[in-house]
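[Meeting: bench + compute handoff]

Bench side (C.D.) handed over the final construct sequence. Compute side (W.E.) agreed to return the predicted structure before the next meeting so the bench team could plan truncations. Sequence as handed over:
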Amino acid sequence: MTEALLVITSPTGEKSKHIISGGTVAIGRSEENNDIIIRDDGGVSRWHCRIDYSGGVAHLTDLNSANGTVVNQTQDGSVVSQTEVEPGGFGHKLSTGDVISIGDTILEYKGPSRPQAPAPAKRPDHRMVQLLYHHTNNPSILTDVMNCRPNHKPLQKSGKKSSSAKSGPKSGGVVNNIRKIEEKREQRRAKAIQAAEKKKERQMKMAIKGVTADGEVLDFADMIDVYHEKHDVPPDQVCMGIPMWASLKIRVCVRKRPLTKKDLRMGGLGALDVITCACTDRSQIAVVHEPKQKVDLSKYMENHPFKFDQVLDEKCNNEIAYQCTAAPLVSHVFKGKRGTCFAYGQTGSGKTWTMSGEGHVIGIYQMIARDLFKHKKRPEYQNMSIHVSYFEIYQGHVFDLLNRRNRLMVLEDGKGKVGLKGLTEYQVKDSRELIAAIDRGASIRRQGSTSANERSSRSHGIFQIFIRIPGRRIKKLHGKLSLIDLAGSERGKDTAHADRRRRIEGAEINKSLLALKECIRAMSDKKGHLPFRASKLTQVLKDSFVGGSRTVMIACISPSGANTEHSMNTLRYADRVKAIAGIREPGARIPGNAMRSPDPPSKVDEDEDQSPSTKWKDYDESEDIEKLQQSLPRDQMDEYMAHSILVSKLMQAENRVVRLHKNLIEAEAQQSKENDRMMKLAIGSDDGFDQDAYASYLDAMIQKKQKSLMELAGAVEEFKKHLSVESQTANSH
């Protein structure tokens, strides 16, 4: 018996045999270019391993499979003499009885019963004979070559020179020619190997396009598997969950959540993970595999890579996410600076989970509370106190979440300083009080249902932490940290068929997110106009965009194929922010503070409490909205800003109506006492009643009320006009 045998045991226990007679035997899940096809084992890669068999000896080589190839591993995991086969090289030599494990499939190798006899020497072909004939006239050499005796040495008589030696070439000529033949053979082999590699490369490219070389149509899961096999980062180069570039002024981080039970129940694309995180110490990349179809319904896939400062996959928990994003901001604010951390993404992508946690899982809020009071225990910080406030921005209005959702007024003083009139601020003594304030505010925060998510945060939640130091009269502001859970971003078509309230929500959210991006642009450029008045969000965060502030953006994405468009929009927004913040020069990872640049000497160290004489005024947002219009390409105007501009005008008209109505009620309340006094005089019997004065009073009162009513009527008419225009615009889309 000169042939080897493989006994194959499938995961279901079925056995089959494969005879190895020589050459290479390829093993894998793909039906293309594999001699042994494993169809019912998901742990086997498309091209898993191969066995090279020659002269009765077999060598096993792994083909960079996902789960590896192991020899002699027991089923219960205990190892007797386990060998993990490395890819490349000369392979692992197999012996009779060796058990090969690939996935859940077992292959037992049985070698030949006796050593394979050496192959008889082949007679050289006529070309070799002609070659030798031209280089020698010695008949004995030709005879020996024809009889396959290469070691023959022709006998020569002593003392005499052979006639052939005189006329023929030197004895080394034959050896050189044979060596040249061997070199040509090696060159042909190298070309064959190169052609095979090119063929495999072409097959990989065809697989990404959705078909194999034989015309087999692949599904999207197979296409993603092909991408992973070709682009997976080697295990020794993976750099996941380690803080990167922590000292940058603006950092953009991406966090991918795991597939949920809802995603898996959806099946199809919904249960398919279309996000790949490729992270090394030199680059952090998130790749979106976008499934597509051609006009002829054939499938193909587009891969969109995005590079950021930090990318976290689904294996990174909230603690890792905190250490890689917001943790450096704690020490920053204790040094007298400002810090801002905000989470952005579609509804259901994990923003609130990241910021607040749920149940026994704590989020960034709770971890910051823990670390804040750890810092405060240091001797240099013990004279400082920690204060908090919590408010939300909903439909362009601001509500205090720590004071029964009282509506707040956003005003400016003469110096352009922004203040929230009526905002409550509480001092907290420990982390438990701080977390209790967060929970109290979160319990009354506005939520709603959209076509994209049943339970969506429909407001921007802003939790602010103030570090204060004793002053001469009041406690002065030393540092400030703003933690923002942004409302879920939606596409226009997700709110197009909702009622007016939902449409206004979506328009205000999109406008505020665009304004936030433009403010980050202005902060990065350090010049030009800062369009903070374009939205309430950027207005109340104005002080976070100036001075020695640091900003961390956490872009949360869903891996589900059903949310591919949402994930693409989130990553494009984050990519624009990253492009604004500037691209680092390529190089090795600089963790922690290794790249720290000297902080500017300026501090927050200012008193935010205004004296009673401070004059507050309303503001005009039209100029900054115009700046937002100019920042967008014309083809994106309709999608992002057209409806937002209408909503902005509508909200301005509504605010004017509310203000005039309130003024009218207050004026009537003040006039009520005077009306009662004049009425008593008119119906009384006092002889001193002045009828002329009474008539003049009534005339002045009526004119004043008419003026107020006419002004209110005009505001109501304008308000109704904007309502009609908004409804018509929404219906036209």
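W.E. noted at the follow-up: Residues 150-171, 208-217, 583-617 have pLDDT under 50 and may be disordered. C.D. will use this when planning the next construct.
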